[in-house]
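The records we work with from here on pair a chain with its fold. These numbers are not coordinates but entries in a learned vocabulary of local backbone shapes. To see the layout at work, look at the sequence and tokens printed below.
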Amino acid sequence: MGRLSLYLAILSLGACFNGNFQQAYLLSILNQPYLEVHEEMGRLSLYLAILSLGACFNGNFQQAYLLSILNQPYLEVHEFINESTIYRTGEPIDPLYLDMLWSIINVMNPISGIVGQLLAYLICDRIGRRWTAIVSCIIAIPGLLISMLSRYFFPYYEFLIVGRFLWGTANGVAIVVQTVWIVESAPTDQRGKVNSWQEVIATSGNLLTQAVGVPLATATLWPFMFAVPLGVNIICLIIFVLMYESPQYLLMYRHNREGAAKAIGAYHGTSNEIEIQKQVQKCEEDGQKKQEAVKNAKEKQPNGMEVMFMPWRANDPTSVVVRYGAWVGIMVKIAYVFTGARVIRSFNTFIYHDLGSWSKSFAQWGSLANTIVRLPLSVIPIFIIEHVGRRPMLIVSQVVSIITLTITMISIFIGPAAKIGTLLGVSLLLFATSLGIGSISRFYSAELVPKNMLLRTVTVLSLIESSTKIALDFGFYPLAAVTRGYSFLIFIIPSIAFLILMVLYCPETKKRPVNAILNQMAAKLKVDVTFKV
């Protein structure tokens, strides 16, 4: 009697599974749509992922490759220019003229970038974000082909300058349209994630340049380093042909509500019609505000350039706040330029070898090892940026940059006995900027201004950044060759000033809509204006 029979055990289990198990499963399955909605909102859509990767490879990857491509074979290119001069004149090139010419070749990047950025500003609203990106790829192809064949145009080394100019122009277009297209297409809670990829992809471009440059840094093979960005450019061109246009552009300039809804569904990764229409409505309201400003005959509203550069005209409360946000974003971008990270990446083999007293072979492999370490480090911001926030990462990385620049300068003063300090100083500087300001400065300004100001702000930001880079790229190499360690003061002194400005003026933007950030800045400025959240 005390024993449970087999039949009774089976009956009890069956009844419980039929009752309690089914009840629990029913309750959990009814809760599943709620969970799916929230998972969907936090999940990156395939279209947005492909767009972000394509745009970043067309912009940041090409920019990093462009900046670093002549870093490894710089002595071989010097010899190519010298051989060309001897063939044409019968005499070797003057060393001072060669230094000046080498600076011109490097400064051609930001000069051509300015041309591309102005071109992007002129065509982006006329032909759309998608077609502007396609145009950038089309311009890059002949530039890369000319650069790759420059050795075969001997003794006319000027073809290398022409090819780099076309490539740099294409990259200037790509950098502007990349930020605008991604920010206009991404949901608010995905902005940090998709934009943090920029530093990862830029680092991969730098790494690939170093990896390809070590074996190809010979007198005959160095032109083939241009084959890699040519292949990447063709892949990006195919991606852009297959992508949707920016939903914001479709509504504001093409009045295509149906097309915008399809683009939002694809980029936001949702088929929920209510959510799609809600996002369409938000885009439409932005577009209507812009159209109303143009149509309002009684009270003309200031345009973007007046807001940014003519405070005596654009002195209304809204313009004051928007101008503040735009210039804070530009300040952060310029601060990154003055950390010296980009210039040092372009000349790190020279710094290791000529200034740090390492052998040429060690300098080349050291540059490669540095970039290999930076690649996984640059992935970290993707996972932490929406938790830690922009402001702490900006400030901490800026402090570390100042310290590492100082270590590098002192080590160069000491000489060969402190060459490990030069190696560590440069390496830690590049690591710190990859983890902080290098990643965030690429998109921070786009989070501080309304979308209808985005193209103008990004263009002005890129123009100012390129102008600053012209001075630094042109001046650093001859300055460092003459003054050695003192040349790092052009980075250290401005970086200290920018650190103070960041502490005082940079707001936190993580997971916040632009209008909420504008309201915070309005309160800080004590301006009587409120933006609808």
In short: Confidence is low (pLDDT under 50) at residues 6-13, 20-41, 287-298. The chain has 21 helices and no strands.
